[in-house]
Design a protein that fits this description.
2 copies of one chain form a homodimer. With 192 residues, chain A is mainly alpha-helical. Chain A contains 8 helices and 3 strands; from the N terminus they run αβααββααααα. The structure holds a DNA duplex (28 and 28 nucleotides).
DNA sequence: CTGTCCATGTAAGGCGTTACATGATTGT
DNA sequence: ACAATCATGTAACGCCTTACATGGACAG
C-alpha cells in the first residue's frame, strides 16, 4: 500500500504529527499521490498497530493531544524494502478518455468544447508544476542539487513532460477537428 | 460514475450480455478504464434498477439464464448528458513516482534498476497500443476513418503519446544518473 | 480427461471520499 | 466579531479487487 510507504518515507526524515504530514503531502507528492486528512490519520493508526511507527503523545490541557509519530527500525526496514521493489504496473484510469472514445456520439463542436476545457485544466496544472520547479531551482541556486532535491525534482519533470504531451495531443486533435479532417496519424507521425 | 456511462456507451451501439461487455471492455477501453467481471455484473444490476437499461432474460434449460441488456430512452439521455459534461479533474495516482521522490534513500544503482524495469513496462504497453492502432489502420484502409473509428483511435494516440513522453523522461534520467550528474533541467529544456 | 470457454453471480475486504464533530488560538 | 489555522478523530458510503461458486459445451 503506497500511502503507508509514502508516510514512512516522510517520517524517515523527521518525526511528524498527522496534521503536519497532511501539509507535507500537499506541498510535495500531492500531484501524484493525493492524501486526505482522514486517510492519513487512519493510516498512522494502522502503522502504529503494526509497529512501524511510535507515537509520542503530548498532552495539552483543554486542547486535543498532540501526537508525534516516529519511524521505528521495523518501519525503516519496511520502507527500504518497498522503495527498491519494482511495482506491478497499476491500473490507469482517465474518465476523460471515455468521453473521447465515444466522441462520435456528440457533435464535433461539443467535442471541441471538452478538449478546450481539458486543455485549460492541463495548462493550469502545468503552471503549478512549473512554479514548484522554479521554487526548487531557486533553493539550489547555481550549485548542483543535492541527491534529495534532485530526486524530488524528477517527479516534477515527469509531471511537466506528461502534461505537455497531453497538451500536444489536444492541439493535434483540435487542428484536425477544426478542419473536419477525420484522418488518423501514421505511427511514424506519432513516434516523431 | 464513469463505468456506468462507459457501459451505456457500448449498449448505445448494441444490446449485450455482461459477459460480452467484459470482452468489449478488454478489447477497447481497458487501458484507460479497466473493468472486471464482478464490477460489470453489479453495475448492470444497478443500471437496471435505475431504469437506464432493460433486461431480456433468455432461459436455457439446465444452464444459467442469458441476460441481454438494452439501453432505454432514459439511458440514452443520461449517456448524452454525461459525455458532453466537462469532468472535474480527477486525482492522478502513480505509485512509481513515490519511489522516485524518495530516490535519495537508495543507491543510484537501485534507482536505475527501477527505471529500467519501468521502461520495459512502458515499452510493452507501447507495443500493445501500437498494435491496436495498426489494427484500426488496416480496418479503414486508404479511405478516411469513420467518425466512430476516428474518435476511438484518438484514445490510442493519447496513450501512445503519454507513454512515449514517460519513456523520454526515463532516458533523460538514466543519462544523468549514469554520469553521476545530479543537475536538474531548466524549464526551457523541459519545454523543448 | 483435462483445460478452456461460456455465463452468471456472491462475499469479503481494502482503499478512498465526504461529511460531521470538537475546541483553542491567531489574524483581520 | 469572524474567519482561518491548529489538531484530532469518527461514521458512512462508494468503488474496486480477489476469491469463491456453479455447471454445460467443446477442443486437444
Amino acid at each position: 500500500m503506497s500511502l503507508k510507504h509514502a508516510i514512512l518515507g516522510f517520517l524517515s526524515y523527521q518525526a511528524l504529527s498527522g496534521y503536519d504530514l497532511k501539509k507535507v503531502f500537499d506541498r510535495s507528492v500531492r500531484f501524484f499521490w493525493p492524501a486526505n486528512q482522514s486517510q492519513i490519520y487512519r493510516t498512522l493508526a494502522d502503522l502504529h498497530s503494526e509497529g512501524l511507527v511510535n507515537q509520542e503523545v503530548i498532552s495539552r490541557e483543554e486542547r486535543l493531544d498532540l501526537k508525534i509519530y516516529q519511524i521505528t527500525a521495523a518501519g525503516q526496514a519496511e520502507f527500504q524494502r518497498w522503495i527498491t521493489t519494482p511495482l506491478v504496473p497499476q491500473d490507469y484510469r482517465e474518465a476523460f478518455l471515455i468521453q473521447v472514445y465515444f466522441g462520435a456520439k456528440m457533435t464535433d463542436g461539443e467535442a471541441l468544447a471538452l478538449l478546450q476545457n481539458m486543455s485549460q485544466e492541463l495548462e493550469a496544472a502545468l503552471g503549478q508544476l512549473s512554479e514548484m520547479y522554479r521554487f526548487y531551482q531557486e533553493k539550489i541556486g547555481a550549485a548542483a542539487a543535492s541527491r534529495d532535491l534532485f530526486y524530488n525534482m524528477l517527479t516534477l519533470e515527469y509531471g511537466i513532460a506528461s502534461n505537455q504531451a497531453a497538451l500536444q495531443w489536444i492541439r493535434s486533435v483540435q487542428a484536425r477537428l477544426a478542419g473536419g479532417d477525420y484522418s488518423p496519424r501514421t505511427l511514424a507521425d506519432l513516434a516523431g
